[in-house]
Give the backbone structure.
Amino acid sequence: WGRLLGVEQAVVESVCLDAGVVVVSVRPLRWARGRCGVCQRRCAGYDAGRGRRRWRSLDVGVWRVFLEADAPRVRCLVHGVVVASVPWARHGAGHTRQFDALVGWLVRRMSKTAVCHLVRVGWRTVGQIVARVVADADAAAGDRLAGVTRIGIDEVSYRRGHKYLTVVVDHDTRRLLWIAEGRDSATLSQFFELLGPDRCAKVSLVTADGAEWIFSAVSRYCPRARICLDPFHVVMWAGKALDAV
Ligand SMILES: [Zn+2]
């Protein structure tokens, strides 16, 4: 069962079917026990916490699977009394790391509604999982804004064009750098404020459509950046100019 569920650093004690779900009782291996849930440091035990807890794991066939284990509390010198860490899940999460990873992968490829139905979790839960996965990815990636020189800026609409997000990408790493609600100069200014004057000065190229709000923010914060307009708008403007003459 341990191999089937991909449970590592833990011992499977028993498996039972309970009200339509598979409940797998586990306990962390000795060296993984008694550690702070926040910093993973080994700590003195405190109490039994609120007893047994369950974490949703990856499904087996059509069955939903839950890992069940004690959730004792420890006293960390830095973080105080906290629930002890478990090897299979993030601190404070009700889902295993593998379940989080699955949802994180799915939301990049399908709608949130589809993900809710497919993995049988609530709408809000998907958001909470995404927040956990992104926070860990951010921590692992370090400072995303370091070494940025060539960026792209655009807007995307949602709610059928009633609301907009401003999106900034890094052309060299091909990664999303920053995203925020709104599409105006003030919104984009938040990004350049975050980037700071030193890094703004190193921005050499900005791709964008012909929007005035992008142009004004870029020329204010990155005076040395060349602005590269997208071919679609350039061709459209040239077509209109030709029509006019
Ligand atoms: Zn700690």
User: Anything to note?
Assistant: Residues 95-142 form one domain. The chain has a mean pLDDT of 93. The chain has three domains: 1-88, 95-142, 150-244. Residues 123-141 form the longest helix (19 residues).
